[in-house]
Amino acid sequence: MPWIYLLLAGFSEILWSTTMKLSHGFTKVGWASLTVIGLIASMFFLLQAVKYLPFSLAYPIWTGIGAVGSVVIGVILFHDQFPPITWFFIILLVVAIIGIKVTAGE
Predict the structure, then answer these.
(1) pLDDT tens profile 14-23
(2) 46 and 10 in contact (C-beta within 8 Å)?
(3) Does the record bear Membrane in its keywords (predicted)?
(4) Which structural domain range is residue 98 located in?
(5) How many structural domains are present in the chain?
(6) Whether 89 contacts 67, CB under 8 Å
(7) Taking residues 57-61, what's their average pLDDT?
(8) H or E element, residue 16
(9) What is the SS3 assignment for 91?
(10) Contact between 62 and 49 (Cβ < 8 Å)
(11) Which long-range contacts (CB under 8 A, 24 or more apart) does 39-43 make?
(12) Dist. CA 87–CA 31, nearest whole Å
């Protein structure tokens, strides 16, 4: 269950970062409200995960899910573009997240 909490925390991280962009500086109340809900959900699920997982394991995975997910959303929704070398480093980030999970023994 702690891994599910951590995934939910990561997805909530993607939610709040995306809705923060859509809120246009918190001028659109609906998107701003979803941002706050996403922030609260992200913190709640992260807190649940670290009850059972080491913080030094949970935190980098949580931030990595949020970072990679935000990149993907940025490309899909906001048409962000990156040079190939940036994609190389994004792939390295995914490999690092998986590596942390696999080698941590949890």
Answers:
(1) 999 999 999 9
(2) no
(3) yes
(4) 2-103
(5) 1
(6) no
(7) 93
(8) helix 2-22
(9) helix
(10) yes
(11) 39/12, 41/8, 41/9, 41/12, 41/15, 41/16, 42/9, 42/10, 42/12, 42/13, 42/15, 42/16, 42/66, 43/9
(12) 29
DSSP for residue 104: S
pTM for the model: 0.87
∠ Cα 63 99 17 (to 5°): 15
For the chain, the residue count is 106
Q: How confident is the model at residue 106 (pLDDT cuts 50, 70, 90)?
A: low
How far, in Å, CA of 1 to CA of 64, rounded? 19
Helix (H) or strand (E) holding 67: helix 55-78
Contacts of residue 84, defined as CB under 8 A and 6 or more positions apart, other chains included, come to: none
